Automatic annotation (TrEMBL):
Region (Disordered): 1-35, 319-341
InterPro entries with a match to the protein in the record: 3'-5'_exonuclease_dom, Exo_C, HRDC-like_sf, HRDC_dom, HRDC_dom_sf, RNase_D-like, RNaseH-like_sf, RNaseH_sf
Organism, scientific name: Streptomyces tubbatahanensis
SUPFAM superfamilies: HRDC-like, Ribonuclease H-like
Pfam assignment, any one: HRDC
Taxonomic placement: Bacteria, Bacillati, Actinomycetota, Actinomycetes, Kitasatosporales
Protein name: Ribonuclease D
Start and end residues of each HRDC domain: 240-320
Ranges annotated as biased composition (Low complexity): 1-28
Length: 421
């Protein structure tokens, strides 16, 4: 048994199709109580020693201040391991956790939705080489609801209190109810891992999951997003290139202010306000102040700052304006395929149907069997000579895992070779 099972054994894992379970047991307090927050070099050294001496997988979680602070840095890191108990670490006071990372070298880390937490963990020196993602495991096992609370409920029979997930974790000191919530998030994570491993093995999917986990651990940090201003909410309303330039200038001006003040950009200026200014193209601060999102409490200095961004866009030469569409290396949007390449559209239709049908047979989401982007790219530019081998090679080149190739290569070969494709 894991340490969390020593005093309160959890119910056995339930298959996704199992009958409704009894009401979950509320999990109200961490077993050893709420641990003190580690916020000094001396306390961190003790945590490093304890977790290095612990045994088995280590549960890891991180809390950010999305919507409150600039960026996605971690403001609390939670860990639990057999023999070490639970630790709550303040990464603001202890910004370098590379020593802890070294103490855990070779250990399996258990995270829920790992891709959300890994970037902020890497920033503070924590880089797992082995992991088990309980959310992804739940998807592969066919669970309809894969949030941590739902998984702990459905698989272990306990109810986690989730009321503090969206609070401002940069608050100091952190209130006791928040710390309790944070500690409970890792209380049963290893138990959940163990139960899901049994379920995946029962379904014959454990090796698939292990391939997925290895790919996540080995994946490099993604490059910075190109033209991030294009993701401004409401951007679809902006049609003209000079209006797009206003969005771009306001986006970067807002980003600079948000970074300097360490606040979420949306708290500086909303996306809706940026779009309104782009559509109206105000010629002065007074006209700007009449637009939604710029009036009321906004001071003259702020208005002048935003108007200056609008004026910069108005003054740009034609060749300096952003282009209407963002250049992409992939295929065009599928809605245009029927006109651009009817054969490719037929291939895509057949391939999508085959992948969807097989995903349903395997009881897992289609996007986990094979990503839609992979299917699109293969259908837009199929191998010159379609065969199971050439399709497998193409999928491998597109980043598909071996288990995905084994499950889909023959289906896709048939789809690419079907009449009309």
């Amino acid at each position: 048994m894991t340490d969390a099972q020593e005093t309160a054994a959890a119910p056995a894992a339930q298959a996704p199709s199992a009958d409704a379970a009894p009401a979950p047991v509320p999990l109200l307090e961490p077993r050893e109580g709420i641990p003190p927050v580690t916020a000094s070099a001396e306390d961190l050294a003790r945590v490093v020693e304890a977790f290095g001496a612990g045994s088995g997988p280590v549960a890891v979680d991180a809390e950010r201040a999305s919507g409150y602070r600039y960026g996605q840095r971690a403001y609390l890191v939670q860990l639990r391991r057999a023999g070490a108990g639970t630790a709550l670490i303040d990464p603001v006071a202890c910004p370098d956790l590379s020593g802890l990372d070294e103490a855990l070298a070779g250990s399996e880390w258990v995270l829920h939705a790992a891709t959300q937490d890994l970037p902020c963990l890497r920033e503070i020196g924590m880089r797992p080489t082995r992991l088990f993602d309980t959310e992804l495991a739940g998807r592969l096992a066919g669970f309809a609801r894969v949030g941590l609370g739902a998984m702990v409920d459905n698989v272990l029979g306990y109810a986690l209190e989730k009321g503090h997930s969206a609070v401002d974790w940069s608050t100091r000191p952190l209130p006791e109810p928040w710390l309790r919530y944070a500690a409970l998030d890792v209380e049963l994570l290893v138990d959940l891992r163990d139960a899901l491993e049994v379920e995946l093995s029962r379904q014959g999917k454990l090796e698939w999951a292990q391939e997925e986990f290895a790919a996540i651990a080995a994946a490099p940090a993604p490059p910075p997003r190109k033209d991030p201003w294009r993701r401004t909410s409401g951007m679809h309303k902006v049609r003209r290139r000079r209006q797009m330039a206003v969005v771009r200038e306001l986006w970067f001006a807002r980003d600079a202010v948000a970074r300097k003040r360490d606040v979420s950009p949306g708290k500086v200026l909303t996306d809706a306000a940026i779009v309104e200014a782009a559509l109206a193209m105000p010629t002065g601060a007074r006209a700007l102040s009449a637009l939604p999102g710029f009036g009321q409490r906004m001071g003259r200095k702020q208005l002048d700052q935003w108007q200056a961004a609008v004026d910069r866009a108005r003054a740009l030469a034609e060749e300096e304006l952003p282009q209407q569409g963002q250049a992409t290396s992939g295929p065009p949007p599928p809605r245009s395929w029927a006109d651009k390449d009817p054969a490719a559209a037929a291939r895509l239709s057949a391939a999508r149907a085959a992948v969807t049908r097989h995903a349903e047979e395997l009881n897992l989401p289609q996007e986990n069997l094979l990503t839609p982007d992979t299917v699109r790219r293969l259908c837009w530019e199929p191998p010159a000579a379609v065969s199971a081998e050439s399709v497998s090679g193409a999928l491998r080149g597109l980043g598909a895992r071996e288990w995905q190739i084994a499950q889909t290569a023959e289906l896709l070969r048939a789809a690419l070779s079907s009449p009309g494709a």
